[in-house]
Design goal:
By secondary structure, the chain is of the alpha+beta class. The protein has one domain. Helices cover 18% and strands 40% of the residues. Strands 5-4-3-2-1-10-9-8-7-6 form a ten-stranded antiparallel sheet, sandwiched between helices. Strand 9 and strand 10 form a beta hairpin. The relative contact order is 0.19.
Amino acid sequence: MKHLDACARFLAALILTGGLTACAAVARDVWSPWGNRLLPPEALGASVWAVQQWHILSGGKSWLILNVLDVSPHGLTLVGLSGFGRRVITLRYNGVELSEEHHPSVPEELKGRRILRELQLIYWPKDAVLHALPPGWHVEDTGAERVVTNAAGAVVHIHCEREDRWQGHCRYEDLRSGYRLAIDSQVEAP
């Protein structure tokens, strides 16, 4: 967590200084239970400024990303850096349009819509998530745990150390693909 504090100011400066040079159109993501749909930022019901460290495991590969996430009712901005300090992704979403800029070496596991949907499955309120899921999908939420299911069974399992998911450690696992995301999050006090 101390490393998150050190990165926070650097990442915040990057948010204010502009974008990356590479832009990409985002293809349909087959791993998401809700296709290309995204929840609007205001569905979070709060404004949040968080510094996060992500550890992503997929297909035998591993990525470590340091992020600043800024969400308000008017929009969302996420800036992510590699462990070497290279900006690898910038997302801006106003509830209608998603703008994504990423380094050319960014794999599918780090592309915009997928990351944003995973964040929304973890942090957005259960009712908002449930409203966005297709018919026949369900969300079981017990505070620190959330399980997304369909007729075939559990699809996504989320476990957080605390009921306040924004503070501390959360694990996201796509039970179909084995894709895993671990997030250490620290929220800046207003």
